[in-house]
Protein 1
Amino acid sequence: MKRLIFGTAIIFIVAFSAFGQKAALGKADPAKGVREAFDRLIDGIKTVDLDKVMGVYDKNPKLLIFNNNGTATQGWDEVKNVNEKIYAKLSNVTLDITGLRVEMLGKTAAYVTCKWKQTQENNGKLEDSSGRMTLVFKLVGKEWKIIHRHTSPDASRLVFPSEREIKTEPTTSAGQIDLK
């Protein structure tokens, strides 16, 4: 009888332990995919890997980027064209992210905010800047993609010299747009 009670107790302990572990494993972090996409973006920037960076953005003509220099770029193709020109000149990029915050807006939308500090060589010339960034993510199929980015420099810091040189004209079509 003691063996039966002991055996039953062991079975209950193992069963409840397994159930507790399964319940804990079942509570998936809903922001995990967004953080992973953000990490791919940051890694792509640090390694100057344009394909990795562009892979995080939604390949859509409605993609809208508010740039660090006060301009805006619209459409995945135009964002890629602009970044191809910039990335061709970059090397030795360092990027520090602080204050990272991921907010889920439901099962298919989220936003990420953070502070950033970046140094880089542009055509061999050292540049540095810092600021804040907001990224809006949307679940596209099974992948989290950026549909909007807003980057602004710290008020006390200048934008990268190479970005100050970019001039844009107002337009109603996809491409560079000036929202002033």
Protein 2
Amino acid sequence: MLKDKNIICFAPTDWWAMNPSCTTHIMQRIAKKNKVLYINPFSSDLLVANKSGITRRIARKLKSIAKFLKQPQKNLYVFSPIFLPFQGKRTIDALNNFLLRAQIKTVCSLTEMSEPLLWIENLRAADLLESFQPIGIIFHVSDLFAEDEYVAHREILRQREEKISKASDILICVSQGLYDAKSAHHNNVVYLPHGVDFELFQEAAHKGQWLKELANVPKPIAGYFGTMTAYNDIELLLWCAHKLPNVSFVLAGQITGGDYSQLKQMNNVYFLGRLPYEKIPRLCACFDVCLLQWKMSRWIECCNPLKMFEYMASGKPIVSVPIKEAMQYSDIISIAHNKEQFAEAIRWELQNDTIERSRKRIEIAKNHSWDTHVEKISELIENAITTKQSGQFHLASQSLGEISR
């Protein structure tokens, strides 16, 4: 296990979200033996290509900034810097970089962070690399960042991503698609998918406690939890709810984009809103089939849904759109290529799932616990630091089998 390091983490997901991000899970564990400064997002751009949901995004960002510097657990500090919510213009970027450098320098002094290891997921960190003299840089590639439809300045994103990629000692990719893209140009790339709080979801599945939020929801339940945006395939959900009137569709999470008004009018669709994370395993245990429903795009095709292994840990059947990470488990996950297939797959899973398939899902999830993944990450980092200090070349690319299994 990595120990006695100072780690500065630039990550793109709010620490206080309903579903903690992959980096949140990782840093919570690494902070047990290291000091971690987790810097909340500072890349929001209101000059975006897609203006929908801007008001909600502003409110979320202001709420985050108001927290400024918090310490949610020993050795772990979460910092939400003040910045102008615009980017892409030279003068604004220069002013933001000045503000960010000054604030981060102050917080590093307050928290006694020196000679840090940088963990980067937020591409805006590219403009701040020269502010540090890190012992190492880890680029956690969790998405096709430059393909974000909410961002207007994609070329700037691509430039920042390449700068970080070149400066990094390790690039950790969470999906095979991301690994293939990065390893074609860099030789220090590894594939390590997301993990899961295995014991948490398994315990909830064994107890089978009913949630009060589902008191008036009849079985069977097809469920999804997570932030709901325009990326979710709302038309697909409408089709399934119409074709399967005896199935209750339960959706838990904040709506931050997309038009869900028609779904809200359906008698067999239930919106639970935002639930605290401690309720999510119990909610998952109440599902009869779990859903991974997004509009297919290059972004989604190469993603690795964090909730996929959470669904598996509960042992529940899963229906997914053709995401590559889900398709490698097509013997235990139903893959649907259109809305008709998706509805039929829900019906099939409700009637035909077996104990053997459930046990296989559970076993796969067990092999991907966050604790196991953090041990692998720690070993990678220690090796990279040793290699860097000895003046040798970057870590060689490692295959899927060597890292993720």
Protein 3
Amino acid sequence: MLPLRLGAVVSSLILCFLFPPFFCLGIRSFPTTDDDGAFFHYSEAPEYRNGAGCPASSTHTALPSCDPSLVHIAMTLDSGYLRGSIAAVHSVLRHSSCPESVFFHFVAAEFDPASPRVLTSLVRSIFPSLNFKVYIFREDTVINLISSSVRQALENPLNYARNYLGDMLDTCVDRVIYLDSDLVVVDDVRKLWRVPLADARVIGAPEYCHANFTKYFTDEFWNDPLLSRVFSSRKPCYFNTGVMVMDLVRWREGNYRKRIENWMELQRKKRIYELGSLPPFLLVFAGNVEAIDHRWNQHGLGGDNVNGVCRSLHPGPVSLLHWSGKGKPWVRLDEKKPCPLDRLWEPYDLYKPKQVRDRARDQNWGFSSSILVGYAHDLL
């Protein structure tokens, strides 16, 4: 007679062979990043509830995302930055006055090592009451438009998913906040949501006009009078595309996806920039951006990309901390070499340290069988 826990494991394997593809699919697509299956080593987040004065939810909409009382946030979701994405979501909920009124739109790559279905299950297990939807981003949509960059990480097709939000999100979603996965929000996100986009502007973002704007494009671009003329009628300033408020109605009407793609197509013929997905956005929008307070993107905390030097906060108040750049706080914390500001990210991290997982495994030998069978059951 098999022990109960061992019997559960054996039973799940028998079901795999007797009833393909349902049970086998559930097991095969369950990803691991270490010997323990680390994708699912996260603590469940606390329940965050709406405070007094939050808008009442509408009950007559056909799609949950069409509720006019919602704040919409779009993020990418992938195995490489999963820990950062979970921390970012946690930070938004923790500081929101109306967390139940926040709707997350997650864009996942079709061929990510963690399938979109697995990522959906993971998010639901960590945030059981979260309003969210996962969209599958087909990499072939953009793969032929991507040119080589100074860093291989910038060539990831998912970096370009923000260009397609107007196409992917439900048409009833007329505004969205786009957030990168390497940041935390330390203020009520509804304040950012309410920023007006005046003069028919399509996006809003903190601008940095002291930056040397010319360095984002090659000499071939600036020496071509037809190309460089694109900025002749506007005063371009650098802005970071990791935090943007986007008017999707104006985006769709102006066909801005195609405008960005046109510059990417030209880049394939002429080398007019070096940095991934940022320059096409600058070419289309720089000089015509709603300037949002700098507190909403204290960026560059990833450190100096060349020397790995830690960076300090910019002067002024802080509503959002952004570890843009090469270094990520979870990597440096795990390596016991954190920058001082990485400690500000740590409270939002829901990943379980290995020693905590080992204790849980010792206490419950049969953890894997319940996950596998439960996940397979969801597929039926």
